[in-house]
Structures are given as C-alpha cells and as structure tokens.
Specification:
Largest sheet: 4 strands, antiparallel
Structural class: mainly beta
Number of helices: 2
Number of domains: 3
Order of helices and strands: EHHEEEEEEEEEEEEEEE
Helix content: under 10%
Radius of gyration: 20 Å
Length: 274
C-alpha cells in the first residue's frame, strides 16, 4: 500500500526505536506493511539479518519517525460524482493507524486518477489530522471498486471518527486506447482458518487479442472480510514488456489489517507499450 504524506506540518524525521517480535508465518514484507515502513527501512535498522530466514521469537527494530501535529488545513475539494464508502481504521502494534475507504464507479463510466482526503475528527468535531490517499491503480472500470488507503504514523492522534472526501476523478474518454485487456487467475495456496494471511498463486496474461504489447501489467488483489469489506490489499507488477497471449506465473501474500480474510478480488491494469 502507498503511504501518503500527512498534510499537517511535521518535525524532521527523528527515528524512534520500536521492536517487533517475529511470529511464526510472518515475512519481512508483512512486518513492513504492518508498521507502515519499507523493507529497506527495516534492513537499514537491522544490519546483518537475512530477509529470507527470519528467526521466530527474535525482535526487529522498526524505525518510526516522530510526528508533531499542528492545526490541520483540509485540502481543497474537487467535486466529482463518485461514491465513497465509510472509512474503516485499524490500529497497528506500533501505534500507527491505517484508514481505508473504497470508491465505486457507476453509470457505466470508466474513471482514472482517483484521490481522496481522509480526515480524523475528534469528539468536538475538529479535524486533528488529514492525509491524501491515491488509488493503487490508475484505472477504475465501471461497476468495480477501488481501495484508497492512508497510514497515520505513530503516535496517531485521538479521534472519534474518520471521513473521506473525494478530491479528483476523471472520466475516461471512450476512444482511449492506452489500456489493454488482461486475464488473471489466482487460487488459494495457503490459508489457515480465521487467518489474516493468505498465500495466492496463479497466472496473469495480456489477452491474446490485445492490439499491442503492454509496457507492464499491474494486478491489485483485495482482501475481503465477511461483509465483503476491503481490509487489506497487495500489488504485483510485471518486470518487463508483455506480449499478447504471454502468460506469467504469479505468487503473492495477502494480509488483512484486522478481521480474518474470507475472500479476495482481483483488479488489473495494463498500459500499451509506446
């Protein structure tokens, strides 16, 4: 998930040590995802560890920057007719906060360039923090939903509710030919009962009838809970130009930020090669 920059003024990045005890089944990717940092951040803070062989029970130092909130200025809103679902927020062990909403494209329109502000409101109705969320994929096809997520670094402010306000969304012209059709098939390789971690595998390919090569294929996999709410997502990208009909093997880990995963959904995007 992309980690947008808080719109509130902050101090310089003064790392605050936080340790994460490694549990069975955890990967370095999952630990970085959970705390809102990058794998490179963790490797830099823990020299000498082998990311392929994590020792259960040992602890990793998680570098987290201190943030000091000031008066929050809400972003200027660009009104666009797109529906946003209620915001769901999830605390992380380090004291950070992930907040997710989903955008839906209706009326048979394909959209691109979605962004929204997610704002935390306190019990007095005052905005205490706000961040901009950008869609993981550029394209949102008609009838589908796109997650928009932000991470508020620790210590996240005390809040009573969170709201989402759409900032940008652009209707895709019918004659646009820069996106190509993709075929993706994934199945569950590993998932324990009541698990917040699924391992998926399968194939993705550029449709055989595509008019040109794809510069790259991007696949977004959404983790869904009992109510089909998005509780996490992961992305995969091809590493080279893909030709029509070319099939690529894919394996990825899918994590929930909260409740167990009950299902998953696939969104894809392929840009025509120049």
């Amino acid at each position: 998930m992309p980690i947008p920059t808080l719109l509130t003024p902050t101090q310089g990045p003064t790392p605050t040590p936080f340790t994460h005890p490694i549990q069975e089944g955890e990967t370095l990717y999952y630990i970085a995802y959970l705390h809102g940092v990058t794998i490179d951040d963790i490797l830099a803070a823990n020299p000498g560890i082998d990311p392929r062989f994590l020792s259960i029970g040992s602890s990793l130092i998680i570098p987290i920057a201190d943030h000091q909130d000031a008066d929050t200025q809400l972003p200027v809103v660009t009104p666009v007719p797109v529906e946003l679902d209620a915001v769901s927020c999830f605390r992380t062990p380090s004291g950070g906060l992930w907040c997710l909403t989903t955008a839906s494209a209706g009326d048979g329109r394909n959209l691109e360039g979605l962004s929204a502000s997610i704002t935390l409101i306190d019990a007095l109705g005052q905005a205490v923090a706000s961040a901009v969320a950008y869609s993981p994929l550029n394209l949102l096809e008609a009838g589908k939903t796109m997650p928009l997520g932000v991470f508020f670094p620790p210590p996240s402010p005390v809040y009573a509710r969170a709201i989402a306000t759409l900032m940008t969304a652009f209707e895709l012209a019918p004659e646009t030919d820069r996106y190509l059709p993709v075929e993706a098939n994934l199945e569950i390789l590993e998932a324990l009962p009541e698990s917040a971690h699924w391992r998926l595998g399968g194939t993705v390919s550029l449709a055989a009838g595509a008019p040109s090569n794809a510069e790259k294929i991007t696949m977004l996999v959404l983790a869904l809970d009992d109510g089909n709410n998005v509780v996490g997502f992961n992305m995969w990208e091809s590493s080279e130009v893909v030709s029509p009909g070319q099939q690529i093997a894919v394996q990825l880990d899918l994590f929930s930020l909260g409740p167990p995963i009950r299902n998953f959904q696939i969104l894809t995007e392929a840009f025509a090669a120049p």
